[in-house]
What we know:
Radius of gyration: 14 Å
Largest sheet: 7 strands, mixed
Shape: globular
Number of strands: 7
Oligomer: single chain
Distance between the termini: 27 Å
Order of helices and strands: EHEEEHEHEE
Amino acid sequence: MPEIxxxxxxxxxxxxxxELRNKVLLRPIGIPDFGWEMNDxxxxxxxxxxxxxxxxxxxxxxxxxxxxxxQLIQMAVETNWQGKGIGKLLVQSLIAxxxxxxxxxxxxxSRAEVTSFYEQLGFKVYGDEFEEVGIKHRLLCLKL
Length: 144
């Protein structure tokens, strides 16, 4: 079973996380490599490891000064690992961490086609569909 660990930007795995995000999230929609890292320094980074291979990642960025609310961003899972529960493990670890830090809410700008994945994990859809980076998205929130 893959292991979920939290890393910081000094960890050598951070470079592998960046590459996975480029490959799975950015390149397919035409965003330049490393073009979505503005929140990395203030975020908590979680990676899924299968032995010594990084197979998934997700970030949690605080979005208020009291650090009572965070946003789940940049979730990526290696293509050959998708559909095997890695994303679920990543989100569950992120939620447990958020609870331990006293956060009260997590929000997501989810690509519209994967909204149901997050709903199965307890997130609720709010508002209308909107466009972000040229893709239809939905706002989802989870009260902790």
